[in-house]
Amino acid sequence: MIVAGQQNNPGISMAGAVDLGALKHKVEAEPGQVGGAPAAGAYVVDVTEGSFQAIVQTSATYPVLLFLWVPTDDRLFPMAKALGDAVNGLEGRIQLARIDMASYPSIAQALQVQGAPALIALIGGQPMPILQGLPQGDEMRQITDEVIPKLMDVAAQAGVSGTAPYAGDPADQTESDGDSGSAGAEELPPAHAEAHRLAAEGDYGGAAKAYEHLLETDPNDSLAQRERSKALLLARSGQANVRQVRERGAAHRDDVEAQLAVADIDMIGGQIEDAFNRLLDFLAGHKADTEAVRQRLLEYFAIPEPTDGRLQRARRRLATLMY
């Protein structure tokens, strides 16, 4: 049954077992291969137990549509493709987060979903059930043409109107599926295990402290620097009310704390250049607050890839403003 505009918070109840009886229809093709499931990419991401909390957090910045499915069930491929096409066509105004129920049943249990497929919207961390079971008749077209736009309207009314980050070309994702030794993958150093565990559990303050300890041992640990910055960001602003933060930022343009808070929201939402420019513009006209802004920018600078053009431009401008 489709429900649009109605909010429901099932909490994190683990009651009830996930019914895997509907998940028996398998295919041999691996996800992403020709003849298999549509690949992730663009504004479609695959979610694990470790990344689910981050998805909940970022739903405070842009709306998220959760698709609980099994990527080896070929009955769900048309639905996955239709949802992916619809979301990607909106260019980041909403994100599609796919959850493999067979691999991560605890997420389905937490959301009180007992069978695949299911659709749940996340807006400001609040779940809204959309659909349970395979769409019938014109239901799929109704979801893509009517329900998803309605969700974006509801999100905008709640002040959740940021842009989801671009996750890369789906074609590139397809080529890399099944290649666990791809060059872009980072192996977790054993010393990082505790900090990584804390972050995966949503204890971002604890994770930041654990990464700080790692940096005391090795100040040049770039992975620890990046993850510490991300943990500090989420610990500070991951639960912020986006509408209130932006309203305060607009009303208090000369208040450094208000502008730092808005920049945090931009960073969480993947609007990296907006965050950089907001603080650099503020710095240009408020020399008294130089150190607070400089420190926040240095924290942000650890998050993007070193070759990111936005980072390089921001570094140059900061150097010009400071010296």
From TrEMBL:
One Pfam assignment: TPR_20
Give the originating organism: Bifidobacterium aemilianum
Top-level taxon of the source organism = Bacteria
Q: Where is this region: Disordered?
A: 161-190
Q: Which Gene3D superfamilies match?
A: Glutaredoxin (3.40.30.10), Tetratricopeptide repeat domain (1.25.40.10)
This protein's name: Co-chaperone YbbN
